[in-house]
Automatic annotation (TrEMBL):
Protein name: Peptidase S11 D-alanyl-D-alanine carboxypeptidase A N-terminal domain-containing protein
Record bears the keyword Mitochondrion: no
Superkingdom, taxonomy of origin: Bacteria
Stated family: Belongs to the peptidase S11 family.
Keyword Hydrolase assigned: yes
PANTHER family associated with the record: D-ALANYL-D-ALANINE CARBOXYPEPTIDASE, TRAFFICKING PROTEIN PARTICLE COMPLEX SUBUNIT 12
Keywords annotated in UniProt: Cell shape, Cell wall biogenesis/degradation, Hydrolase, Peptidoglycan synthesis, Signal
Positions contributing to substrate binding: K251
Any one GO BP annotation for this protein: regulation of cell shape
Amino acid sequence: MKFKTQFVILLFSLLFLFYPGDSYYIKLFFFNRDLFANTKKNINLPSGSFPYSINPNFIPQITAEGSYVIDSDSFTPIFQKQQSRQFLPASTTKIITALVAFDYYRLDSMLTVERVIDEGQSMGLVKNEKITFENLLYGLLVHSGNDAAYVIADNYPGGEKAFITAMNHKSKLIKMRNSVFKNPAGLDSPGQYTTPFDLALAARQILINKTLAKIVSTKSITVSDVDFKYFHSLNNVNKLLGEIQGIGGLKTGYTLDAGENLVTFYKKNGHDYLIVILKSLDRFEDTKRIVEWINTNVGYINI
């Protein structure tokens, strides 16, 4: 009888400790972990090592209005700031553009430049130029070329309209429940928005894909059309790539209304992090501060 009483007390103690609505520990270690773990791709499941804040009162001081930072291996958030608020995505939209396009095109697929988009950042494509999908991916993700985004959409079955439908379908498929996309480049458009949390989900899909992960980590590259008539020198917009050890790129974004956006992949001491910065006054300085905070204030324990 005494054993049963002790067991019941222990059981209710554990239920109280790990009840998601009230427990500090469950929020610390498992906040939205099920959502981040929901994928059909092969990933490294948590090994029992989880991050914690060494000094909970010390948080990074950033200008960004929205931010979400996770430990990728355990799917644990380590810093949040308005992570569910809707923001203009700007060119971080190209993360979804790349994921949708990769589902359809082969790397050696030849696409034709049907129209030239000269609004915003451009990789310098020429009308009627024929170029491989792989080279367009470099223009899209390294140089953030809006023209590359529209060529990819225009060559999709059904054209740009069908491609945008596929973008929104893809976003919902990977559980981006608070995102809507209206064009493939991220140009400001009424009704287009995303959240820091949703972008972390999209970025994780990029990193799962080895080809796309390699492309976003490229500092600079020169690509050509299939006939070697036109050459395009591409430089990564993310100036932290190559400046700070451990940063493996990912995606920038900027418009006047969106402000400065940046999604960053960072590795430190065997741990992988995703850093999302939205509507910042200085995305690179904000990201530096978060990296420094991770280096000094994030520890790990085994459960």
